[in-house]
Design goal:
This protein has 233 residues and is mostly beta strands. The protein has 2 helices and 16 strands.
């Protein structure tokens, strides 16, 4: 998209996890947390665009509401973002256009006042989860299973320099408390799985008409992730 083209040096093909030892004033990505779902926000403002703000690593005085800290990349009111840590008046976010044909993400600071929390659907019915869901980095099919469960089949990919890295999820799980979450094939409870031992952990939420997916980056090859905003095909 043109509004992000000037910042592709900052864009990644996945919402990168925060770097080890990352300074409090730097925003390089959003961490997966096994204990609670990722937060989602919507950009709001009384102006047509909200510019990203530079990291402390870019300039010692940043992030700050100054022209010197302003990046050329921007979002517009109505955009949905994944939300991470805060620093003063700014929030670390990851953004991916749901309709983008490529899985490009932009990570960075936005003014906290320019966003409002978006709550997921509190109790979506099983039918709300069903369908073929797509985004630029992959697809997920959710179909009915017995005893209130659903089958989740998905594939994600990352175009590396010389080949394509892929990941696959194939699980059966039961939606509960507004979430659809599972470890590996779903035979082990999500809360009992051990993130440190390489289990593929996936959590889904329904937000507006989108399926919001996050994983722990252990569901496929290098740089492969299912994390993203999925549209129903």
């Amino acid at each position: 998209m043109k509004r992000l083209a000037a910042a592709m040096v900052f864009a990644l093909c996945a919402p990168a996890a925060a770097a080890a030892g990352e300074a409090s004033g730097d925003c390089y990505g959003i961490d997966f947390n096994v204990d609670h779902p990722i937060a989602i926000a919507k950009v709001i403002a009384d102006r047509p665009q909200i510019n990203f703000v530079k990291n402390t690593a870019d300039a010692a005085s940043c992030p700050a509401s100054t022209d010197a800290c302003r990046r050329s990349a921007y979002l517009v009111p109505g955009d949905l973002v994944l939300v991470g840590k805060t620093h003063g008046d700014f929030t670390c976010i990851a953004y991916q256009p749901p309709a983008d044909p490529k899985p490009d993400w932009t990570n960075g600071w936005l003014p906290s006042a320019a966003m409002t929390p978006v709550l997921p659907s509190p109790a979506p019915s099983r039918a709300d989860w069903l369908g073929n869901w797509v985004h630029g980095g992959g697809h997920i099919a959710i179909t009915p299973a017995g005893r209130g469960q659903v089958r989740v089949r998905g594939e994600a990919f990352y175009n590396a320099a010389q080949n394509v890295h892929t990941g696959v999820i194939n699980a059966t799980a039961r939606p509960a408390h507004g979430l659809l979450q599972f470890a590996d094939d779903g035979s082990e409870a999500f809360d009992a799985a051990n993130d440190d031992k390489g289990s593929c952990l996936v959590r889904m939420q329904k937000v507006e008409k989108l399926l919001v997916v996050e994983d722990n980056n252990a569901c496929g090859g290098v740089m492969v992730t299912f994390t993203g905003f999925y549209r129903k095909k």
